[in-house]
Design goal:
Layout: H1 5-18, H2 22-34, H3 57-64
């Protein structure tokens, strides 16, 4: 992860102000922003079509479980 100088300075200041590590501040920001427990879903359909003479075993195994 690469931060700009101003981002790093802000996190450093917040870490000193709150007593939390910069890593903890980043983890909290990720958890709040991306809601890891609740993944958004969209309505719709997925359609996949393919013809293979000798399909890769990993691909065939993944598609067989999608039924």
């Amino acid at each position: 992860m690469v931060l700009t100088d101003s981002q790093h300075a802000f996190l450093f200041g917040e870490a000193r102000r709150t007593g939390l590590s910069m890593g903890e501040l980043v983890r909290r920001a990720v958890d709040e922003t991306y809601e890891l427990e609740r993944r958004p879903c969209v309505r719709g359909f997925e359609l996949s079509l393919g013809l293979w003479r000798n399909p890769d075993a990993a691909v065939a195994g993944r598609r067989a479980g999608a039924r």
